[in-house]
Design goal:
Blueprint (H helix, E strand, L loop, with lengths): L11 E4 L3 H12 L4 E4 L3 H8 L10 H10 L3 E4 L2 H7 L2 E4 L15 H12 L7 E4 L7 H12 L4 E4 L9 H6 L4 E5 L5 H8 L1 H5 L4 E4 L1 H32 L3 H9 L20 H14 L8 H24 L7 E5 L14 H11 L3 E5 L4 H7 L4 E2 L3 H5 L4 E4 L4 H4 L3 H4 L7 E4 L6 H6 L3 E4 L6
Parallel strand pairs: 1-2, 1-4, 2-3, 4-5, 5-6, 7-8, 9-10, 9-12, 10-11, 12-13, 13-14
Antiparallel strand pairs: 6-7
Helix pairs in contact: 1-3, 5-6, 10-12, 10-13, 13-14
The structure holds uridine-5'-diphosphate-glucuronic acid.
The site of uridine-5'-diphosphate-glucuronic acid has 21 residues, from helix 10.
Length: 447
């Protein structure tokens, strides 16, 4: 149960109501605080105020409604109103990749800080950055605050939530990282805000601004590297005749390696990993240590090759050119339990085959609306059966539970040729083969 807000409790402003900010605002209210969420997107504010989450995130809408009804949570388009009401201001705006380079575009972060200063940030206010930023950003922003709002403090506390598990990751994170300047009140105030989370046993790492910024990009770089490592092993398995799934499961018994993020397939996408490794490299170049992160361009290259290999496998399964061939694609989101299609490997594979002349039909349980808007030439369907109808090859591209549970015997009469390519290593090959299907997967031998 959330605690009842007291007059001495921090009053919280969350700037930016995308995946990160909307989840953060709702979870802060769930922890019992009075929260105002601010965004420049009027439609987003209207929908959130009406109890509607503008993206797919399991569990978030129920908590949004609960906290709106409890009167702890409001949304506004006015930063001035938020500065008037709150004393702790979380920056949760996006830091997309710049169009002209791999670096991060910081204009929204800068606009948030300028907006706070212009709105009359007070000397007792605390600004907490959560957006993913290149290292050095917090130091620069702290100087900007010192000049524009003397006394106001800056902390950097990166967020590690995963889409699809955003609520749980926010309320029960693996760790909290507080990047603070020496001698200030930020650590004490953050410990107050996260008191319940800390009491529940969440470890806290208190460090400086620079290290806090680095923790976030290093974590994502490590995860991306782990995925590309196993996809590189899949390439070797393909050449040597090994089986990457059996290899990964044997590696995972070593507790130092572990089993998570060793799922070979069509690679990583989404709004974070791809852009974060490029921004990290760009920043390392600026710092004169580009060599230290040169391996990240290989991580990126392995990831890009996973798509090419999946398309090549589809061509091979079709026995030649995809022109005028019928392909069924299961999945559009960059991962299950999300409607996010940013840098989605699933759509990249489907679109490449379409451009090569195939008639590709795509089904996804949540991402069709977003996908259709960006890929108007793909055909989208409202069920698995209509996506695979008449298909000469079926591609599993996002491992939704619904797809993992498919009965291959039930699906078989709907396709022209029972050939499945498992782009996520999510299906049981024995079950599909027993039902008469040819099963193919990246990094696995054809049996
Ligand atoms: C990622 C990080 O996991 C979060 O900790 C971080 O907070 C977040 O980015 C962020 O920076 O905001 P997310 O983008 O939600 O979270 O997605 P992940 O679960 O990391 O998956 C990323 C991609 O890797 C997906 O396309 C997924 O299909 C792929 N993946 C994941 C694999 O190909 N193989 C695996 O074994 C695991």
């Amino acid at each position: 149960m959330p605690s009842v807000s007291r007059s001495t409790d921090p009053r919280i402003n969350v700037i930016g109501t995308g995946y990160l900010g909307a989840t953060h605002a709702v979870c802060m209210a769930e922890l019992g605080f009075d929260v105002i969420g601010v965004d420049i997107d009027a439609d987003r504010i209207r929908r959130l105020s009406g109890g509607e989450v503008p993206f797919y995130e399991p569990g978030l809408e129920a908590l949004l409604r609960k906290n709106l009804e409890a009167g702890r949570l409001t949304f506004s388009g006015s930063l001035a109103e938020a500065v008037d009401q709150a004393d702790v201001h979380f920056i949760c705006v996006g830091t997309p990749q710049r169009h002209d380079s791999g670096a991060a575009d910081l204009r929204h972060v800068d606009a948030a800080v300028s907006g706070l200063i212009a709105a009359g940030l007070g000397p007792a206010d605390l600004v907490v950055g959560k957006s993913t930023v290149p290292t050095g950003t917090a130091t620069r922003l702290a100087a900007k605050l010192a000049a524009g709002a003397p006394g106001a403090e800056l902390a950097w506390s990166p967020e590690f939530l995963r889409e699809g598990f955003a609520v749980d990751d926010t309320l029960r994170p693996d760790r909290l990282v507080f990047g603070v300047a020496p001698g200030g009140t930020a650590e004490r105030r953050l410990r107050t805000i996260y008191a319940r989370t800390i009491d529940d046993g969440t470890p806290v790492v208190v460090t400086d601004h620079t290290t806090a910024e680095l923790v976030k990009v290093a974590a994502n770089a490590f995860l991306a590297t782990k995925i590309s490592f196993i996809n590189a092993m899949a390439e070797v398995c393909e050449a040597a005749g090994g089986d990457v799934v059996e290899l990964a499961s044997a590696l995972a018994h070593d507790a130092r390696i572990g089993h998570r993020f060793l799922q070979a397939g069509i690679g990583f996408g989404g709004g974070c990993l791809p852009k974060d490794i490029r921004a990290f490299q760009a920043r390392a170049d600026e710092l004169g240590v580009g060599r230290a992160l040169a391996f990240l361009s290989e991580v990126d290259a392995v990831n890009a090759r996973a798509l090419t290999r999946a398309v090549a496998l589809a061509r091979e399964a079709l026995g030649g050119s995809p022109t005028n061939r019928v392909v069924g694609a299961l999945g559009a989101a960059f991962k299950p339990n999300s409607d996010d299609i940013r840098d989605s490997p699933a759509l990249a594979v489907a679109e490449t085959l379409r451009r090569a002349g195939a008639h590709v039909s795509v089904y996804d349980p949540a991402a069709v609306v977003n996908a259709r808007a960006c890929y108007p030439n793909l055909r989208f369907t409202d069920s698995v059966v209509s996506a695979v109808a008449g298909a000469e090859v079926v591609l599993l591209l996002t491992e939704w539970h619904e797809f993992r549970e498919l009965d291959p015997a039930v699906l078989r009469p709907h396709v022209a040729r029972p050939v499945v390519i498992d782009g996520r290593g999510a299906l049981d090959p024995g079950r599909w083969r027993a039902a008469g299907w040819t099963y193919r997967a990246l990094g696995r031998p054809q049996r």
